[in-house]
Amino acid sequence: MKLLLVEDEPKMARMLQRGLAEEGHSVDACATGEEAYARATDVAYDVVLLDWSLPDTDGITLLKRWRDAGLSTPVMMLTARGSTGEKVTGLKAGADDYLVKPFDFEELLARLTALSRRGTAAHGAPKFKSVELDTRRRLFRRADKEAELTAREFTLAQEFFAHPNDVLSRTRLLSAVWGTDFEGNPNVVDVYVGYLRAKLEGVGAIDVELCAVRGIGYRLTGREP
Ligand code: CA
Question: What's 172's domain CATH number?
C-alpha cells in the first residue's frame, strides 16, 4: 500500500514509518497539517494515517478540508484521546477508522488492510458509458484495455466521473485538482483535459467525450459511437 503518515511526534513517526516499511508498504511522512494537505491532494494514497493533534492544526480540521475538496482516500485517525465524544467527532468529520494510542502494531496492520479494501468497495469503480474509472489502480478501463493515470489526471477524472453530464467550470476543476491557492497558469486544466482525452482514446472509448463548453469549462458526456 502507498501510505501517508501525518504525525508530529518524531519517535512515534519513526517507529510507524519503519514498521510499515518493513511490512512492504511505501510510507510518506509529514509532521504538519499544511504539508499533509498538499501531499494528500497531490499524490493518490491508499490510506492516510492521521494524528489528532498537530502543531499547526488539528486532524479533524484537516480531514474536513480534505473531504470538502473531494478527497475520498480512506483516513485512519490516530489519537491518544479515546473518549466516545471525540471518536464520534472524528468519524463525523469523515474518518473511516480510529485507533487509540498506544495501539498494537499488528492491530494497526489488520485495520489498514481492512480499510484499504473497504475504501475500494465503498468508492467503487465509477463508470460512465463503456468506461470504468478504477479508483484502486487509478486507470481507465474499457473491456480488456487499460490506461494508467497520473495522480493529477486521476483526480481530474474523478471530478468528471462524479458529475457526468454536468458542466464543470475551469475554476472548480482548478480548485478541486490543484487547490484553491493555485497561482499558476489556469490553462493547465486544458492541458490535462487533453491528456485525459488521449487516454480515453487509448482505451477505445468512442462513446464518451470531454466536451469544451465555451467560456466556462468542460463536461463529460456521451456521444453516438
Ligand atoms: Ca500529535
Answer: 1.10.10.10
